[in-house]
Amino acid sequence: MSAPRRIRASFRAGWRSFLRRRTAVFFTFFFPLIIVVIFGALVRTEPTGGLFAEPPGYYVPGYLAVVVLFTPLSRVGSEVARHREGNRFEKLATTPLSRGEWLLAQTLVNVVVIGLAGFLLLALVVALTGANLRLGVGSLALLVGYVVVGVALFCGFGAILGSLADSQDGVIAASNSIALPLLFLSETFVPPEMLPAWFRPAMGLSPLTYFSRGVRAATFDPVDAGAVAPAVSNLGIVVALAVAFLAVGALVLPRTD
Amino acid sequence: MTAVLVAEDVRRTYGETVALDGVSLSVAEGEVFALVGPNGAGKTTLVRALTGTTDAEGSVSVFGADPRDVDRERIGLLPQEFDPPERLTARELLEYYRGLYDGGRDVDAVLSDVGLADDADTWYENLSGGQRRRTCVGSALVNDPDLLFLDEPTTGIDPAGRRALWRLLEDFAAGGTTIVLTTHYMEEAHRLADRVGLLADGDLVAVDDPDALVAEYGGASRLVVDLASDPGQDEPAPLPEDFVLSQEFERRDGSLVVTGVDPVDISEVVDALDAAGVAYDALTWKEPDLEDVYLDLTGESVVGNRRVGGRTPRPVSGGDA
Questions:
Q1: Mean per-residue pLDDT for A80-103?
Q2: The pTM is what?
Q3: For the stretch A115-153, what's the b/e string if a residue is b when 16 or more beta carbons lie within 10 angstroms of its beta carbon?
Q4: Within chain A, what is the greatest distance between any pair of CA atoms?
Q5: Cβ(A59)–Cβ(A189) under 8 Å?
Q6: Which of B47, B51, B72, B100 to mutate to test the interface with A (most CBs of A within 10 A)?
Q7: How would DSSP label each residue in A80-140?
Q8: Taking 90 as the threshold, does the pLDDT of residue A137 lie above it?
């Protein structure tokens, strides 16, 4: 029972620390709000052509990706940098808490935070854009699964960034440089048909592409015999990627000076 | 007694900078071992090598195991410049670190021990510097460790708080906890440590109990004469050319340091000062202490504005715990 106890203690500390950084809390929820308002309510979809030519429901994976991608990437990356600069990893290295347990606790904090932000975002998308989504029990369960696993994936990615960058500023710059292209080149806001044919295979390199495809299959694509399969198979890919990123993230977390 | 900590020929370099240059020592169960030395001497690097938080050459054994494989329930560490999550209260921080162990001490008792019972519910970032450091010390005590590493535990703590922490550490030592600490306070090292190791330029240049170090390296007792300055002058005037004493003396900053003088002969010095018209504010009898050892062995002694080299220390092999 030691590991659950350690993870619980680490989660509680991380959760309290996050809630008390009010600016971070505010913008965690405000950022997706302004994205939805800008793209969903101001730009709006335009069926006659242009960038937003698809129905509103098509862009739900993109809106969710805003929180699933950006928040854990920058939050965990910054947390790693803060821990390193405050010699907290040096302290933790002499406690029974393993690096994997630390990262799992941080991931759980992000799952709760981003789960709440994702729920808010989904409600806003439906309310402001009139998106027509399929939100049955099965779809919702898949959606929750995608958010949880997607957050875990990018927490692992954030841990890698935080471990490689040499400062908090470096983490923020790196996470923005990585997240922005991923957000628009992962079948989120820009349909593949709008990109050059030679570039399309590269989209398969983005973990977010599988998140996008899966969420879209679960909530938007027409129901037919083949609709569930992509939702489940892409979830499998995201799970595998999440495990890999978390494992590498835990491995590269600083243990020494 | 059983050695709980053994380090042999520990080396650590950062690029071309040699932080540790073949340090060997052992610390016995229940012993308090203090590391002293100038900034950059390698104290923190040595603590990191002993706790397995830096990659060092040589061998380190803690409770018979590699420091990274040791039972961590038995270890407590206060790193230097430790900065825990700042928006947790002192109580929440100690609960956090206590929650990482299976066993340990009651958090309220630890808060009381480190003098934070009244400020336990204040965010860490709103505590004073001394209170923060005491919280950090508490974080190293919550698991009731058998071996405690404290890297400058009392830095930033006021004298009363420092003494309270000394009493606490003495209680832990009396209870059988082995303590390895680094400090810049010689009084702290002398009071707490069974043995003191003096690090200079990555070398452990002397290891012994504090009194033995003072006897060997502290030099003679001396009379320090604080010379008076003329009104409007920053420094006392130079000594008259015809000023003589039968004892050895030298000018240090605004003082005259007389060595080789017996306490019963202090009046001779006073008479000589009066005869030469040398004004002074105070006379102080100074027994050698650990600070003299430090200054002597590290070459940090200062005469006036001139830095003078220290005595060549004898080489030190492994500790003799």
A1: 95
A2: 0.86
A3: bebbeebbebbbebbebebbeeeebeebbebbbbbbbbb
A4: 62
A5: yes
A6: B100
A7: HHHHHHTTHHHHHTTSS--HHHHHHHHHHHHHHHHHHHHHHHHHHHHHHH-------HHHH
A8: no
pLDDT bucket at B319, cuts 50 / 70 / 90: very low
Closest residue in A to B49 (Cα–Cα): A256
Chain A residue with CA closest to B69: the answer is A94
The greatest distance separating any two alpha carbons of chain B, rounded to the nearest whole angstrom, comes to: 74
> Does any CB of chain B come closer than 8 Å to the CB of residue A48?
no
Q: What is the mean pLDDT of residues B43-71?
A: 96
Structure token digits, residue B72? 């961590």
CB-nearest partner of B72 from A5, A12, A95:
A95
SS3 B203: strand
The answer for residues whose C-beta is within 8 angstroms of residue B220's C-beta and 6 or more apart is: B259, B260, B288
Do the beta carbons of residue B142 and residue B101 sit within 8 Å? yes
Give the residue extent of every domain in chain A.
Answer: 2-252
Q: Cα B274–B266–B222 angle (5° rounding)?
A: 115
Provide the pLDDT for residue B156. 87
For chain B, where are the alpha helices, taking DSSP H only?
A: 43-51, 90-98, 107-113, 129-141, 159-174, 186-192, 210-217, 266-275, 290-298
Beta bridge partners of A129: none
Chain B residues at the A interface, defined by Cβ less than 8 Å, are 45, 48, 51-55, 72-73, 75-85, 87-88, 92-93, 95-102, 123, 139, 143, 149
Residue A229 neighbours by CB under 8 Å, 6+ apart = none
Strand partners, B23: B10
Exposure pattern of A87-99 as b/e (b: 16+ CB <10 Å)? bbbbbbbbbbbbb
Query: Long-range contact list for B1-4, CB < 8 A, 24+ apart?
Result: B1/B28, B1/B29, B1/B30, B1/B31, B1/B321, B2/B28, B2/B29, B3/B27, B3/B28, B3/B29, B3/B321, B4/B28, B4/B29, B4/B62, B4/B63, B4/B146, B4/B147, B4/B178
Give the whole-angstrom CA distance, residue B46 versus residue B57: 11
Residues in B closer than 8 angstroms to A2, CB to CB, are 102
Are residues B85 and A5, on separate chains, in Cβ contact within 8 Å? Answer: no
With H, G, I as helix, E, B as strand and everything else as coil, classify residue B101: coil
**Using CB atoms within 10 A of its CB, is residue B240 exposed (0-12), middle (13-18) or buried (19+)?**
exposed
Residue A37, φ and ψ in degrees, nearest 5: -65, -45
**What are the two backbone dihedrals, phi and then psi, of residue A14, each rounded to the nearest 5 degrees?**
-65, -40
Q: To the nearest 5 percent, what fractions of chain A are helix, strand and coil?
A: 75, 0, 25
Q: Report the DSSP beta bridge partners of residue B149.
A: B77, B180
Please report the sign of the dihedral spanned by the C-alpha atoms of residue B237, residue B238, residue B243, residue B249.
positive
* Nearest CA-CA distance, residue B105 and chain A, Å: 15
Length of chain A: 257
Mean pLDDT of A159-169: 92
Give the rounded distance of the alpha carbon of A203 from its chain centre.
Answer: 17
Is A193 touching B (CB cutoff 8 A)?
no
